[in-house]
Glutaredoxin
Amino acid sequence: MSPETKAKIDSLIEQNKILVFMKGTKLMPQCGFSNNVVQILNMLGTPYETIDVLADSEIRQGIKEYSSWPTIPQIYINGEFVGGSDILIKMYQDGNLQETVAVALA
C-alpha cells in the first residue's frame, strides 16, 4: 500500500467515530454482508459514515492490508478495527455493540 493510501485511510478513520468500509453506500449497499452492517447500524439509530470501496481500488485493496483483514465490509469504531459483518452481528446479538457505540459517541 502506498504511503498516500495509508495516510488517506488514517485520516478517514480519525475523522469518523463510526466508519464502515463497504461495497456500495449506506443508501445502496452492493452486497449482502454490507447490507447486514447497514441494517444493524440503522437499527441502533447511530450516526455513521461509509466509504464505498468499489469507487476506489486503492482503498479497496489498501484497507485489507491496513487491518490485516481479507474481507469487506470492515467496521471501525472510535479509531479501532472491530471486524466484519459476522463479528458485528455477534456483537449486536450479545449487546456488546450497543455498549461499544455508546462509549464511542460519549
Q: What stands out?
A: Strands lie at 18-22, 49-52, 74-77, 80-83. The longest strand covers residues 18-22.
